[in-house]
Fold this sequence. Notes:
This protein has two domains: about 30-210, Growth Hormone, Chain: A (Up-down Bundle); about 240-450, Growth Hormone, Chain: A (Up-down Bundle), CATH 1.20.1250. Helices cover about 70% and strands about 0% of the residues. It has helices spanning about 5-15, 15-25, 30-60, 65-80, 80-90, 95-110, 120-130, 135-145, 150-180, 190-210, 225-235, 250-255, 255-270, 280-285, 290-295, 300-320, 325-340, 345-360, 365-375, 380-395, 400-405, 415-445, 480; strands spanning about 460, 475. α6 (about 95-110) runs antiparallel to α7 and α17 (about 325-340) runs antiparallel to α19. It starts with a helix and ends with a helix.
Amino acid sequence: xxxxxxxxxxxxxxxxxxxxxxxxxxxxxxxxxxxxxxxxxxxxxxxxxxxxxxxxxxxxxxxxxxxxxxxxxxxxxxxxxxxxxxxxxxxxxxxxxxxxxxxxxxxxxxxxxxxxxxxxxxxxxxxxxxxxxxxxxxxxxxxxxxxxxxxxxxxxxxxxxxxxxxxxxxxxxxxxxxxxxxxxxxxxxxxxxxxxxxxxxxxxxxxxxxxxxxxxxxxxxxxxxxxxxxxxxxxxxxxxxxxxxxxxxxxxxxxxxxxxxxxxxxxxxxxxxxxxxxxxxxxxxxxxxxxxxxxxxxxxxxxxxxxxxxxxxxxxxxxxxxxxxxxxxxxxxxxxxxxxxxxxxxxxxxxxxxxxxxxxxxxxxxxxxxxxxxxxxxxxxxxxxxxxxxxxxxxxxxxxxxxxxxxxxxxxxxxxxxxxxxxxxxxxxxxxxxxxxxxxxxxxxxxxxxxxxxxxxxxxxxxxxxxxxxxxxxxxxxxxxxxxx
Length: 485
């Protein structure tokens, strides 16, 4: 390997040769799979909006609020299934969970084109919500099981960026389908959208069946040799709590991680409602912008979202600390929302505010990585908290727009702007509290993985401190303790 290539490899994957060999393989298998699934998730959800305005409404006889019911039924089931979904990953091999969910989700999308009534699509959306629930939170759980604290942020960022690209590109892809496939085979364009999106998902699901490495303790990744399989387990250390028992729910409910990380994620979600609910297009319409501009300019929010997601993730990985960039994101919420509350005298002020707030989407990658950092010591706590972060967010974001961003307020969403300022500002003190608790518990040895006992590694044993300050308990076998095999 040339000197320049070696320096690049060290910069990308670190100085340790074993780490580099492992990370290269994970970055061309595990990471692309989850990134592509999340990209297709964005395209799939956009397909329902495109199909609705492209003939599905009339063909299926949507009436009144049935379009809203379609999305609400999806979101409710999606939110409810996230904690059970991530918990399932601790007892069933992830390959089976993800591929089953992907294939089922693809089939449900496909048969949507055969529906003849609005209520049937509403029902299918509800079922699809259950099988889609694992996509985002499950990916973060698996990524956190393979990557170190200094590696996780950028991988989570790449994953999240593909979701932004999928959302941005979904409309463009489907516009092309509408133009090229309308009337082909005697099918209307809106049906072709569901057929093509479904077909796109199948090869990615098959890719997952071949390349999902499950969890490190499964030792199931065929593309890793035995040495790298063992290295994948030992390099992260071992969680202190690994099995489901009667203490799980008490541990979870009494932990600060379960409440505080999901709480600030919920505040973020409420703050960025100002970027959703057609707020920007409706404001633009009032200022005389064309319909094309109303559709195109808001997609530009994805630009700062992608740039900030990558930049903040890289910085937090290099620092091996998330609170510094989290504070920066919090101030972004405050500044962007404050500009909107001030009612800028020029359009430029509004554009600056909307695009600046777009950079706040970076906290998806940063805060899920932070959550994995501070829950690594407890396998079940990490699984349940991963699901709860998105569920709590959705429990509020489902009804929040009805109060603070009703379409009847357009184009002046002043109370919504104030709500975004308040929720954005509230993230700052809670980020400080989380940073303090993390520092305190790391100093106490209460969080973080425990190291494997190298003298017993041939038998797969590890040292396990059940509680800080107490003597070391009996060793447990990692082959069966971390996950149910």
